[in-house]
């Protein structure tokens, strides 16, 4: 593999091919999942984790409802109790994030966190300390910036649509463009499905068409102004 560090098999290694690094800066992304991971807060405080965990019964208590017959029924809420194992793991991750935030990027969500870095040796520490990384992704730059790759030869531009509602007349114009140029352009599966359902008027941002020159993009803009989100050059491996 690309880094030669696969002997740490407890890290689930993935690679992604792109024209950009994560946030245009970082080569590696580590994903950690744990219930209520964000209780460590933006300061990554292990003391805060311990304090909140001790008060957990006020957060995850059972909802009690009384019916009109006078009997009581306990209706448990969704089971989200913080186990001692989860608490210990969050404390360890809080310490790790706090000690390694300089020069790296950390995105914290409710039940997961993403750690971005260029330090390829840090995964060794994560494995040895058993921090429980759920996934490690390495970004592989395999084409020039602001380009896309294609298996189909003969095209130079890929145009992506905005995600938006369109009118029936706009859809008719879009269909006319596709039908008039079907020998020269290639539409993706999502756009092809869209064209087959008359009542569907919602464009998705992953719909796109490949064209052999900028003139087709200009032609589309004249027929259907304002629907193209971006156009990228297509890169082919030599």
Mean pLDDT figure: 85
Identify the overall geometry: elongated
Which radius of gyration do the C-alpha atoms yield? Answer: 25 Å
Query: Treating each run of at least 4 consecutive H or I residues as one helix, how many helices?
Result: 6
| Strand residue content | 25-35%
Helix/strand structural class: alpha+beta
Q: Sheet bearing the most strands, described?
A: 5 strands, mixed
H/E element string? EEHEEHEEHEEEEHEHEEHE
- Portion of residues in helices? 25-40%
Please describe what this structure looks like:
The chain has 238 residues and is of the alpha+beta class. It has 2 domains: 13-141, no CATH class; 147-235, Alpha-Beta Plaits, CATH 3.30.70. Helix content is 26%, strand content 26%. It is built from 6 helices and 14 strands. The chain has helices at 46-54, 84-99, 122-128, 168-180, 189-196, 214-223; strands spanning 13-18, 28-33, 63-66, 72-75, 105-108, 112-117, 135-141, 147-149, 157-161, 164-165, 186-187, 202-203, 208-211, 228-235. The strands form 4 sheets. A 5-stranded mixed beta sheet has the order 1-7-2-6-5, with no helix packed on it. Strand 3 (63-66) and strand 4 (72-75) form a beta hairpin. Helix 1 (46-54) runs antiparallel to helix 2. The longest helix is centred in the middle third of the chain and has 16 residues, at 84-99. The two termini are 22 Å apart. Residues 1-10 and 62-68 have low confidence and may be disordered.
Salient structural properties:
single chain, alpha+beta, Alpha-Beta Plaits, five-stranded mixed sheet, 6 helices, elongated, disordered N terminus
């Amino acid at each position: 593999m690309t880094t030669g560090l696969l002997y740490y098999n407890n890290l689930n290694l993935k690679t992604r091919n792109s024209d950009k690094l994560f946030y245009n800066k970082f080569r590696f992304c580590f994903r950690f999942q744990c219930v209520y991971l964000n209780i460590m807060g933006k300061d990554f405080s292990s003391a805060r984790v311990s304090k909140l965990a001790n008060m957990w019964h006020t957060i995850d208590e059972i909802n009690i409802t009384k019916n009109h017959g006078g009997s009581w029924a306990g209706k448990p809420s969704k089971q989200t109790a913080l186990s001692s194992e989860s608490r210990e793991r969050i404390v360890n991750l809080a310490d790790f994030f706090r000690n390694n935030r300089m020069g790296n990027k950390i995105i914290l969500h409710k039940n997961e966190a993403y750690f971005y870095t260029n330090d390829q040796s840090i995964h060794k520490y994560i494995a040895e300390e058993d921090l429980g990384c759920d996934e490690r992704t390495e970004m592989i730059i395999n084409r020039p910036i602001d380009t896309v790759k294609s298996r189909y030869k003969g095209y130079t531009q890929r145009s992506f649509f905005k995600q938006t509602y369109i009118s029936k007349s706009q859809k008719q114009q879009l269909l006319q463009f596709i039908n008039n140029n079907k020998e020269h352009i290639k539409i993706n599966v999502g756009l092809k499905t869209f064209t087959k359902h008359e009542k569907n008027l919602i464009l998705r941002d992953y719909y796109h068409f490949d064209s052999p020159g900028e003139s087709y993009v200009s032609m589309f803009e004249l027929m259907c102004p304002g629907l193209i989100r971006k156009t990228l050059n297509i890169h082919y491996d030599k």
